[in-house]
């Protein structure tokens, strides 16, 4: 399916499917087309071309209120003048469901989202996480085939967002409803999802499990966007046994595993994650381990508990690298200005030809 605004391709000939009962995330930067795509699935926008099938039924011409879909927005859109129970039961009342049945279903739903007995509470009495659960309960009580979530955790503070990621994952597993979730936050997508589509300029760069996207990126954009990475541009000066020797303009020579077809002389981009590099005070440690290694100066220490890292400048080329600090305490006394060595297994780094251009629900 596609959606164009003049010459701008907001959604550019996408075709994909989402397995029934799965958690599927669409991950990408602002302006990549995520929200446009979600609004097309919901029926708020008509596709210029292509078809959308939900639960095996074609959706062309079906208005939003007739689709087996509900949507949770970033700002939740709860009705402040209504109680929690009235908010959750609103859609049922609009459908003409009997009051006793609404009361029963609302009570059951609030128990399932860990808000038992909250029917009479006002919305302004709830915490951010509780409001989030009410918004989800309001959608799930209608028993949709598909629940669309448009960056629903974006307005929460960091600690609550981390907590709600776990709650959302558990809720989806408990209900078995198909979730399609859009976000620009890679942590949300990786933690929550069965499968993730990485979106860029209206297209999916790669669709796979979180592990596949993280460990086996298929494009430079995915390698750079999913997880932290050290990126180096240069030329392939040698290609041997699937390993590319990359030489940067600054003179850094780095080995990395080839992804796709690469020939000697090609412009390339190489990526190595901070956690795959090994730090040592003595180069012999890395030599004994059989790792290609570099000498570097410690430029900055980035303390963040288990996510602590060090910024280094490689001695010969002055190239900056971010290296994760091990949690052994071995480098607890590391100081700025110190000279160290670092190295990595070339199979754990990836290299791409440089980008010179830069029972299912089916959407095609």
TrEMBL record:
Q: What is this protein called?
A: ABC transporter family protein
The alphabetized UniProt keywords are: ATP-binding, Cell membrane, Membrane, Nucleotide-binding, Transport
Stored InterPro entries:
AAA+_ATPase, ABC_SmlMolc_Importer, ABC_transporter-like_ATP-bd, ABC_transporter-like_CS, Mo/tungstate-bd_C_term_dom, P-loop_NTPase, Transp-assoc_OB_typ2
Q: Which SMART domains match?
A: AAA
Name one process (GO BP) from the record. Answer: quaternary ammonium group transport
* A family per Pfam: TOBE_2
Query: Domain ABC transporter: where?
Result: 2-226
Q: ATP-binding as a keyword?
A: yes
